[in-house]
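Changelog note: in this version the structure field was regenerated for every chain. One regenerated record is shown below for reference.
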Amino acid sequence: MANLSGFNANDQKPMESFDPLPADKYKAVIVESEIKPNKKQNGTYLQIKFQIIEGQYQNRTLFARLNLDNPSDIATGIARSELAAICLAVDVPSPNDSAELHNIPLVLNVKCVTRKDNGEVANEIKGYESANQQTQPPAQSAPPVSQSNLATPPWAR
């Protein structure tokens, strides 16, 4: 048992449903990345957490898992190809650390797929594009730089 005294659900915003996103292209940034051991403990993968930064689904997250160290040459080849697409989309072709890819806008091509293990529909990232290649609305003048917006990431200003 856990003591929940002092908790009142009326004081909290209830968790929203996290149904899969509709298949589409979404502007996002990488907000986290880390190397994790794979399930069989015979390799590692780079887990990348993306956060959508605009539109109806702003702040929703998606993940990519890249098998960069795996006994399967096919798996590592796919992972390296996907990492190359991410690096080129954020214009960091030779990163020394995955953190160098964080907070730079890119566009995710998201599809809906049916999972083989449970039959549920899930999102899968099927491609990456530069956010600069997207059609942009006419530029508006940028707000003046102030102490308050220095703490805001550049893509959110």
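Spot check on this record: Residues 96 and 157 are 27 Å apart (CA to CA). The chain has a mean pLDDT of 87.
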